[in-house]
Amino acid sequence: MITGIAVTLGTIGWPDRTPARPPVKDSKDRKAAPDFELKDASGKVVHLSDYRGKVVLLDFWATWCGPCGIEIPWFEDFQRKYKDRGFTVLGVSMDDGGWKDVKPFVAEHKINYQIVMGNDQTGDLYGGVEGLPTTFVVDREGRIASTHVGLVDKKEFDDAIQKLL
Predict the structure, then answer these.
(1) Which of 16, 63, 84, 129 is 20 to 30 Å from 123 at the Cα level?
(2) Catalytic pick from 62, 65, 68, 145?
(3) C-alpha–C-alpha distance, residues 149 and 129, integer Å
(4) Looking at 6-141, which runs of residues are DSSP E strands?
(5) pTM tops 0.90, yes or no
(6) Contact 58, 33 (CB under 8 A)
(7) CATH of the domain spanning 23-164
(8) Is position 68 annotated as part of the catalytic site?
């Protein structure tokens, strides 16, 4: 009987003692974020390297992605809150319909950060973006400090951003 209780507590009832994941990787463990050349809605060419010296929240998303729609207001908040401290959000749309789908969405949601049109090659540079949203927080030196696949808590992003600022 006692053995059965101990096994049950050990498998379902004992609190997890695993330490929380740090908000960002140690500096020595960060790899360079691949540079890209993508166009914004006006046709201007944008490179990730244009943002060197800033902390960048690089978000791969799409208009049809439900979790992306949850995160976008958070990212708008971060853009307002931290833009004067050397931070920016850069959205990489992975919509197959291109700007005809993205422009109305951006206007409707009043997105306050730059959006560029991505493609499969861009996703491949980042190890193959298999699910959306996939978000990278890039440090001021252009290295990936944290990676988030799928919907994660807003606080995880905020903690990473604050640590890097």
Answers:
(1) 84
(2) 68
(3) 9
(4) 31-32, 37-39, 45-47, 55-61, 87-93, 114-117, 134-138
(5) no
(6) yes
(7) 3.40.30.10
(8) yes
